[in-house]
Amino acid sequence: MTKLILILVAEIFLLTAVASAEDGFARTMNKKLIDLPNHETLTHLRLYWHDSTRGQNPSTVRIQQPVSNSSLFGSISMMDDALTTDVMKNSTVVGQAQGIYAGAAQGEIGLLMVMNFAFKTGKYNGSTITILGRNVVMEKAREMPVVGGSGMFRFARGYVEARTKFLDLKSGVAIVEYNCYVLHY
């Protein structure tokens, strides 16, 4: 009987060792090893996104045409839009919104937004927040998640609320207010 118990205990240890070896790619870490503080900070940023699809120096270019002329569905555009501190284009530029938006809805102007807000001045210089979500352009307020970040926004999460301040489809100019609520270390 004792021999049987010893064999069972040995098998359990062996199975535990094998299972641990299979998960050898992951481990729990101490936050202090990568200089993470013990508490998170909630930061609110109000930025103005300036998008221009036409003219001499557009900030957005279409890289894939829509599947039909009656909709934006299937279109893909690459952006490098100024982020400013005020609605006016000549206000202080604090960074760039860089990424892609794509027509993802057939019955409305619904975009898939994939972009980084890359900060180029002040306290957040060199840091980014990453936004990924659905933007139904004609709705008054749209919410999209913040899914990550870098620099000061390492391990970021949160959301942004977008509100169109100016839209002229003929000239291809849009100004959107982004209120960003970001939890980060």
From TrEMBL:
Chief localisation class: secreted
Signal peptide positions (record): 1-21
InterPro entries, per the entry: Allene_oxi_cyc_Dirigent, Dirigent
One Pfam assignment: Dirigent
Keywords, comma-separated and alphabetical: Apoplast, Secreted, Signal
Superkingdom: Eukaryota
Location in the cell: Secreted, Extracellular space, Apoplast
Protein family membership: Belongs to the plant dirigent protein family.
Role this protein plays: Dirigent proteins impart stereoselectivity on the phenoxy radical-coupling reaction, yielding optically active lignans from two molecules of coniferyl alcohol in the biosynthesis of lignans, flavonolignans, and alkaloids and thus plays a central role in plant secondary metabolism.
Complex and partners: Homodimer.
Protein name: Dirigent protein
